[in-house]
Amino acid sequence: MTGPTQFTDFATGRQSRAIFSDEALYRLEMERIFGRCWLFLAHESQIPRPGDFFRTFMGEDDVIVIRQRDMTIGAFLNSCPHRGNRVCRADRGNAKAFTCNYHGWAFAPDGSLASVPLEQEAYFGELDKSRFGLVPVAQVASYKGLVFGCFDPAAPSLEDYLGDAKFYLDVWLDAMPGGTALIGETQKVDLETNWKLPVENVCGDGYHLGWAHAGAMRAVQTMDIAGLTVGNDSIDLEGGLSIAGLNGHSTLAALDGVSGYSFYPDPKPMLDYLEANRATVIERLGRLRGEKLWGSQINITIFPNLQLLPGLNWLRTYHPKGPGRIEQWTWVTVERAMPESMQAAILDNQCLTFGPAGLFDNDDGDNLAASTEQSRGWRTAQMDLHTNMAVGRSGPREGFPGDIAQGLVSEHNQRYFYRRWQEHIDAASWAEVPAYNVNPLGAGAQSEAAARDAA
Ligand code: FES
Ligand SMILES: [Fe+2]
Hints:
The chain is of the alpha+beta class. The chain has two domains: 39-141, Rieske Iron-sulfur Protein; 164-454, Naphthalene 1,2-dioxygenase Alpha Subunit, Chain A, domain 1. It contains 13 helices and 22 strands. It has helices spanning 23-34, 119-123, 158-162, 165-173, 196-203, 209-212, 214-220, 268-285, 287-293, 340-354, 359-373, 412-426, 448-454, and strands at residues 8-9, 14-16, 39-43, 52-58, 61-67, 73-77, 92-94, 98-99, 106-107, 113-115, 139-143, 146-150, 180-191, 240-246, 249-254, 298-302, 306-309, 314-320, 326-335, 384-386, 394-397, 400-406. Strands 13-19-18-17-16-15-14-22-21 form a nine-stranded antiparallel sheet, with helices on both faces. It has a four-stranded antiparallel sheet with strand order 6-5-4-7, with no helix packed on it. The protein has a three-stranded antiparallel sheet with strand order 1-2-20, with helices on one face. Helix 8 packs antiparallel against helix 9 (287-293). The protein is globular and about 75 Å long. The chain starts with 7 loop residues before the first strand and ends with a helix. Residues 437-453 have low confidence and may be disordered.
């Protein structure tokens, strides 16, 4: 591996293909991205009661997220301090203690070492149990139902980390009273792809929709999305926005207030729900978000590996397993205020479109795996890839935080994703990461408060 700054170029939209295959660079990503950034752990609705736990990953580290007796949430490395074994094998559940299979050390839900077999006889009563608890994740915090963890004690607060992306997150998390919940099970899919490719595919790549998903669109599309057509023979650049410049976070948004439900064979119950509740949302979020964003097809990405698609109603995270493999975990999300029959229809539709055998997901999986495979040869790894569509055609847009390019078909958001990736890879610590929560447009840009006023 050569100097990391040679790997991407924001101004021209270039990425070296080595970033999808290089082992040393992958290890640097574990340290400087997954070891440093806030990572999605769970939705609070998954662990409502004390002792409820959910197992997930932070990078390649296995982590248990546990609701504590005082209702706060803790997260601990799922590795026994004695000889390293996992102390929890279940994916989720409720536990009074986590007892290691190997020699029987048992840990309380707060991570402390509660009991050790033969403690008096074999350790002669000399084991200081306070030194051998499960290792806690340095920071754990929630934002409106989403629980995040961060290994870096020097990281900014979660609120600051999310920054202006909260303006867009709230369109899903805070539109309706009661907020959101996850329903159904975790859908886990193994994919032979580098973790960055599915993130960029969803964060900004409206270009592939009408082409890669032409068959799926023909099968299930019932409403227009910003003029995107099967075969990409037309487009409406006024109909959507590519919103980036949010410290790696981004949003892709149609502006019609309904197209999130375009891929439902029968969208009527969803459209009725939107109509019945739009006034409530406008009251809570203002006119701009209530009319233009809530209900629209919007893809929200929280750097590095969390994506939410309200309307299609899934939430997804990608767990890297080496440079060329991921586990993709998907959940169905609903607003708690949605009627049960609508929630059931959403779960069905998510399985049809973006489930493990979903129409859209299988198109994507194949393309992403091939892009990874075709970038790790001796010769191809020396070549570049390009997100150079509409370079330089972005700017402020009244009411919306971020640096914004017109249309859903743009490679603007991908460029910003790789820019943030590069900034983290180049920095030895948070102190060297360019100031977070600062809009790259500077003083003239819209703050969240200004946007609310404008709305
Ligand atoms: S490895 Fe867990 S008790 Fe020994
Ligand atoms: Fe796709």
